[in-house]
Amino acid sequence: MIKTYVDLIKHPEIRKKIIFTAIALLVFRLGALITAPNVNEFQLTAGASNSIIDMMNLLGGGMLQSFSIFALGVGPYITASIVFQLLAMDVVPYFTNLQKEGEQGRKTLDRYTRYLAVVLAFVQSISMLYAMNAGNPGLMLDPTVTGYFSTGLVMTAGSMFLLWLGDQISKKGIGNGTSMIIFAGIVSGLPNTFRTVYEQLLGSGFNAGGLINFLLFILLYVLIIILVIFMTNAERRIPIQYTSSALVQRKSDKNYLPLKINSASVIPVIFANAIMTAPVTVLSFLNNDWARGAYVFLSDFFSLSSWTGLAIYSILIIFFTFFYTNLQVDPKKISENLQKNGSYVVSIRPGEATRKYVSTVLNRITVLGSAFLLFIALLPHIIPMVSDVPAQVAVGGTGIIIVVGVALETMKSLTSQMTQRRYTGFKRGN
Question: What is the CATH number for 24?
């Protein structure tokens, strides 16, 4: 592994990509230190948090807490991408056809996604500023329509600049630019997390018990990362065979059909958060006695610090895991593609029997995938409820899944580029 890292740095072209990515991420972190105009930075730490703010903060790379010009991050674009991805799955025929039209269709779909991202960014920024100022009066220096509009415009521009920066990383740097920005934002907050945990467990002075608890915390964190790596790479391999006519042309193809255990990634958690917080967010804009009463009731009922909120949260995660997995992986299309490629699942008849078999296997492994998501998503909320450990010490969360996933994909891409260049050099040498 160390030799691989050294070889990557030694290669001139890959080294340039790494340096470009580092500079782009440095620009991203510098912008994260600039507070948005019309925001009272002395009031930032006084506001309360909730699950939708936490999720937006996660997708924004941890900048929402500081209300920087990049506070929204690439979250609006991710939301817009999910919306169009769902619409393109046989929901709206026009978008479905665009997705099937190849590169040109995908470019058109991406353009629509960016248009929606601009609208979502502006709406999210205004809504977030209004809600946060209502819960923390004095946050907005100028709480007028003009003040909200100008601040929202700057935050929207910041989000679109990050989207452009992500595109540059994808073209000239390493990995997926959008994912790298989220990755950098989450990782940049880890030192502060460990510092907070150290202060919570050891206090102002040294004590052996606190040090042991801190080391146990680090060990638990490492074990969870190992679990996430294992589950991210885990897949169910369905053995397939090729017909004699197709076998001649496909000697190098894999002889199995891989189905990921966690095909949905963190999307079900994002959906569950959105469903639970949407009613509370809407009620926060209404200013009457009934709305205030309903707001207080739903805030307590859906709170992730209560068992009722955790139960609803768990049900939603399980539901959306199955829902999104079946949208992502279509057994019918898999069956059709196998037939077109002159292949079939071992001991299973082609056609409807293959579709049913793949569907059954997919549902079974999704049970394990949803259990994994539940464990990671609920762990930060359950630990403070069943112990005296403060919320800052809790481990887990969807941030780890995102960080590990991006790291694995980036290393896989770099290793693939390195292997390809070695092979090209070998051919030229001959």
Answer: 1.10.3370.10
Both structure tokens of 227: 């679990």
At 271, list the tokens.
Answer: 């959906």
Strand order in the sheet with 235-242: 256-260, 235-242, 343-345
For residues 122 and 124, what is the distance between their CA atoms, to the nearest angstrom? Answer: 5
Determine the Cα–Cα distance for residues 174 and 16; give it in Å rounded to an integer: 10
Question: Tell me, what's the pLDDT at 46?
Answer: 44
Look at the alpha carbons of 36, 39, 41, 46 in this order and tell me if their dihedral is positive or negative: negative
Token digits of residue 199: 């202060």
* DSSP per-residue codes, 348-414: S-TTHHHHHHHHHHHHHHHHHHHHHHHHHHHHHHHHHHHSS--GGG----HHHHHHHHHHHHHHHHH
Count of structural domains, the chain: 1
* pLDDT tens track for 38-68: 888 776 654 444 555 565 565 555 556 667 8
Contacts 24+ apart (CB under 8 A), 358-366: 358/238, 358/257, 358/259, 358/331, 358/334, 359/331, 361/236, 361/238, 361/259, 362/259, 362/325, 362/326, 362/329, 362/331, 363/322, 365/236, 365/259, 365/261, 366/263, 366/321, 366/322, 366/325
Q: How far apart, in whole angstroms, are the C-alpha atoms of residue 176 and residue 411?
A: 11
pLDDT tens, position by position, 159-172: 999 999 999 999 99
pLDDT digits (tens, 9 = 90+) for 60-117: 555 566 678 888 888 889 888 888 888 887 778 888 888 878 788 888 999 999 999 9
- Asked whether residue 245 carries a pLDDT value surpassing 80, the answer given is no
Count of C-beta atoms within a 10 Å radius of residue 240: 18
Residue span of the structural domain in which 156 resides: 12-188
In sequence order, the β-bridge partners of residue 242 are 343
Report yes or no on 312 lying in a domain: no
Q: Is residue 47 part of a domain?
A: yes
Contacts for 235 with CB less than 8 Å, ≥ 6 apart: 258, 259, 260, 261
Provide the pLDDT confidence category of residue 21 given band limits of 50, 70 and 90. very high
How much is the average pLDDT of 175-193? Answer: 84
Q: How far apart are CA 20 and CA 26, in angstroms?
A: 10
Query: What is the 8-class DSSP label of residue 36?
Result: P
> What letter would DSSP give residue 250?
-
Q: Which residues pair with 343 in a beta bridge?
A: 242
Q: Give the separation between CA 226 and CA 232, rounded to whole angstroms.
A: 10
**Residue 142 placed within a domain:** yes
Whether 130 is in a domain gets the answer yes
